[in-house]
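User: Some background: our group keeps a shared notebook of sequences we're curious about, and every so often someone picks one and asks for a predicted structure to add to the entry. Today it's my turn. The entry only has the sequence so far, pasted here. Could you supply the structure so I can complete it?
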Amino acid sequence: MAKEIIDALGMKRALMRMTYEIVERNKGTENLVLVGIKTRGWYLAERIAKNLKNLEYVEVPVGAIDISQYRDDLPEAEKEKMIHSQQLDFDITDKNVILVDDVLFTGRTIRAALDALMDQGRPAKINLAVLVDRGHRELPVRPDFIGKNIPTAMNEKVKVAMTEVDDKDSIEIVK
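Assistant: Of course. Here's the predicted structure to add to the notebook entry:
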């Protein structure tokens, strides 16, 4: 059973609010890059970049990062076999990176993403932007920009649907 919490217009508003907060906190867009966690985080980063272009008239670099090889649920022997390859087509060294994801839950995805980012360079600063913060952290991770806080039970799931992948924009809680 799914219950829609946010519709397409609500998602658009949340992303616009996050965009304004990013500009305010960074005092503009200078030295700013957006890195989305594949898959939906990347599309959210693209949308934020589009908002930035409309508001500030600047093109902010957007990249996607695949964190699958950085997961902490793989055996060490398997991790050692993996090659940490360049994933971004721009340098993040000394940049203000906004790491973007759809849902923040335990914090383990963000931990993996931070490891992946550090393999790409040494940013001046990393901020975290999430569309949904659902709580239940297992690691000390706190987002800087939040589209919506949605308290959930452990047996519930938050499903973010995006037009680019799912043919519609919505956020649902699934039991």
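Suggested note for the entry: The beta strands are 2-6, 32-37, 62-65, 96-104, 125-133, 145-149, 157-161, 170-174. The CA atoms of residues 61 and 78 lie 32 Å apart.
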